[in-house]
Amino acid sequence: MEDLPLHASFVTEDPGKASLVAGEVHVWAVPLHGDPSPFAALLSEAERQRVQRFRFADHQRRYQIGHGALRTVLGGYLGCDPRAIEFRQGPRGKPYLAGEGPHFNLSHSGKLALIALCEHELGIDLEKVRRLESMMQIAERHFSSGEFEALGELDDDRRELGFYRCWTRKEAYIKALGEGLSMALDTFDVSLCEDPRFLACHDGREDPARWSLVDVSPGPEFVAAVAMRASRPAARTFRLAI
To answer: 126 by DSSP, 3-state: which?
Structure first.
């Protein structure tokens, strides 16, 4: 089977053996290749209908594995049949458990998905690193002026990583708020350096001191971040035993 190189910190585990405690965020890496049928069998009728709306078989497979894996992971923490899990949606479509349980979020890029769980509101974003000829133009359009200036000050060999760090941290924060595409990326500042930090919020809607950012990049080809409304947690990272 095709394999994705992940950092050694992502240890293979059964979600039924992981226990989420206060002050922790758990992140599960899920490769999106292979036979999707065991995961497809866990999906709800609404999720199966969603699968049929994808035109390409590869997109169908990624959805089946990603969302089936989400049910598998949540079922392990809740101690229940993954097929019995019910979801509800926030005002802009962010999913939550219908009953008691952890907050969670899912992100995927390329052939990998990440699932994050925590006792606080959170968001996760994963990006496969690709060479972007228009990287600075994208940054100028979407980043704050301070972030764009900081990106321009980086050496050429560090600029691409700085761009993806900034992008994933911003997207993780927006996903944590459940805002989706309705929120402009330049209304707040995050760091671009190795130490992930929420620096400023220009619209006054959130206090940066109440938020934490954590780098959870799973491998050399990916950059990822978690944002949560809580003091900085300890991150535990796993690879789903398939």
So the answer is: strand
